[in-house]
Design goal:
homodimer; alpha/beta; TIM Barrel; 8-stranded parallel β-sheet; 15 helices; about 45% helix; disordered C terminus
């Protein structure tokens, strides 16, 4: 794996680059759609390519439980299994163990939890997380970490950071397929700048091909997230990619990129689509809203995705109300297209040195959207029309 | 609307033809996928075109209830609403009133039932069924009929046939958009040859651009269905299309085509796909079966659809077990592709005069499939492997 920074801006840490991986190049900044069970929910791999994605994320925790990493290895690895020949990143499974499994026992050695499928005890160690990810065969794999919840006191945050650093070293020792898979370490330290800084420095000493910032998007105020990035990003080597785990919205991307972040992943565009919510310039729209019942306009009048080119809000609302799978498909496509479009705009703005113009444009769009929403809500009320959201 | 018969066979009533409709030509025999709520479940219109479908069916009953035929008319009609610019056929809603709605009151004038959405009383008459379908704007619309259940005594079957004939006349009088929409009548008469024959003759006297045979696929033995066709089809004019409503499987198509049928529709390929069942040469496969857990082969090794080109049984089983929408998509695509492939083979066999060869080939495939299934089941049992179907 090689990371080649390309453009840098003068007034911020923003940059573009290319991440060269065994299954292809990834232009950064990049957003990775989440394919938990080796499928991005409601999407086909062809659609992901069409939208422009160059890398997807899959979840080690879920795939270990079902269908099992040995099964996937025997079937030729994750790429062949899910029919995605481009790069893949797998997480370590740690985040899910700490956020999804109720009962767990944490020791220095690893973490024990019960499978939600059959209750079987599973002991996940840094070595085992690497072994599982070796079997899956993603281009980028993640070291097992402890993701601290928010809020978290200083003392447990410090203990957790030490654990994560120890696990990062053990992960590196356990990982031998370094030519085929790049192992990233994860910076923890909760909202404490001194812990974040110490974690970043010591992780850099371990010397890994890429670094992630974890423990973000876990409920902390946005300012705390940005402060963590302000502390951490400058301490990470410029020739290695930086990944903000679980972040976020297009608006977050802009602020993170200005702080030197290259990679993002988030379940929001796919998850909210299945609940009828669409990202549009300046905000989001809930297609279940009664005001769309006879609305012939597309979701977003400036969007060029097939959903917006071919379907009305009225039809999309109808599909959602009728429980049609096509509703999830069309909204997911639109949301992912919107996210990718935002990333591409950010990339171009970095190249053109015009990030601040883009920021101003997005702020204006937000204001316009709010005004329009207010006007349309008042119209609904004048018409005595209820809303079912 | 014009129907042009093209090829005829010498040893059966089988034929090919072209149905010229306002939104395009439909080569017959044709299978119409069912798009109940103005969407073929799990499919996009582009995928339907890619598979080769030239006409789809939509359900008047469901669309009248939700989102309403006036809404669809105001949005530019059904074609624009669902982004399908090719021909559409809508049924009359009668079948659903009689099969889905619990409480209903039938008079000579029409049938009253309660909306399953809000309990509101709806009175459906032949005139209203035409009016609703005029608003939807499909290329082919159906006269309201009473679909008798199976079994049905002679006397009620006769009364029902009379009702259906009276409603057909009223439908014809109510339908004024004859240039834009072709109204088909429906032959009823249950399993009684004399009723079927009388209904066909009197319906032909009414003079409609196409004729359907209804009351099939309602639980009667297959032989009864074929006998009804044997009686009815020869009585229908050769220059009008014949449509076997709700029929059936590819094996049924062959037998119906031999009896002179041109059009089919059936929910099976889409419905069973969502339950994990795939049509393959010679039979069906339930992808939930444990034996597929590590099976790297495609669903059907002779199939050229994208699902079979790109995905293993193991992956499809995994997607289904994980509840992924992509499972419904890939299996639905395969099943519809399989149905269309069978129709195209039948069409070519009619043209080549080789229907009996095709029949023999399908019989052989069925035997081979049964043998293979037996062998694989025994292997599973030898391996002590349970099945979860």
């Amino acid at each position: 794996m090689r990371f080649e920074p390309l453009h840098r801006t003068h007034d911020s840490a923003a940059r573009t680059g290319v991440l060269r991986l065994p299954h292809g190049d990834v232009r950064t900044p990049a957003f990775m759609p989440v394919g938990t069970y080796a499928a991005v929910k409601a999407m086909s791999p062809e659609e992901l390519l069409e939208i422009g994605f160059e890398i997807v994320l899959a979840n080690t925790y879920h795939l270990h439980l079902r269908p099992g990493d040995e099964t996937i290895r025997d079937l030729g690895g994750l790429h062949r299994f899910m029919h995605w020949e481009r790069p893949i990143l797998t997480d370590s499974g740690g985040f899910q163990v700490f956020s999804l499994s109720g009962l767990r026992r944490l020791t220095d050695d690893g973490v024990e939890f019960a499978s939600p499928l059959d209750g079987a005890k599973i002991f996940l160690t840094p070595e085992k997380a690497v072994e599982i990810q070796n079997r899956l065969g993603a281009d980028v794999i993640m070291a097992l970490d402890e993701c601290t919840p928010f809020p978290c006191e200083f003392a447990p945050a410090r203990r957790s950071m030490e654990l994560t650093l120890g696990w990062a070293e053990r992960s590196k020792r356990a990982h031998t397929r370094t030519d085929e898979q790049a192992l990233f370490g994860i910076v923890q330290g909760s909202v404490y700048p001194e812990l974040r800084a110490e974690c970043a420095r010591r992780l850099v000493d371990i010397d890994l091909p890429g670094y992630a910032i974890g423990g973000l998007s876990v409920g902390e105020p946005k300012q705390a997230m940005l402060e963590a990035l302000d502390v951490v990003a400058p301490l990470l080597p410029a020739d290695r990619p930086r990944y903000a785990m679980g972040v976020g919205t297009p608006w977050d991307f802009l602020e993170c990129v200005e702080r030197g972040i290259d990679l993002f992943d988030c379940v929001m565009p796919t998850r909210v689509a299945r609940n009828g919510r669409a990202y549009v310039r300046g905000g989001t729209r809930n297609i279940r809203n009664a005001r769309y019942t006879r609305d012939p306009r597309p979701l977003d009048e400036t969007c060029e995705c097939p959903t917006c080119r071919n379907y009305s809000r009225a039809y999309l609302r109808h599909l959602h109300q009728a429980g049609e799978i096509l509703s999830a498909r069309l909204l997911t496509y639109h949301n992912l297209h919107f996210f990718q479009d935002c990333i591409v705009r950010i990339r171009r703005a970095v190249e053109a040195g015009s990030l601040s113009l883009l920021r101003a444009e997005w702020t204006r769009e937000e204001a316009t959207f709010r005004e329009l929403e207010t006007a349309e809500t008042e119209e609904d009320e004048d018409a005595g029309e209820g809303q079912d959201t």
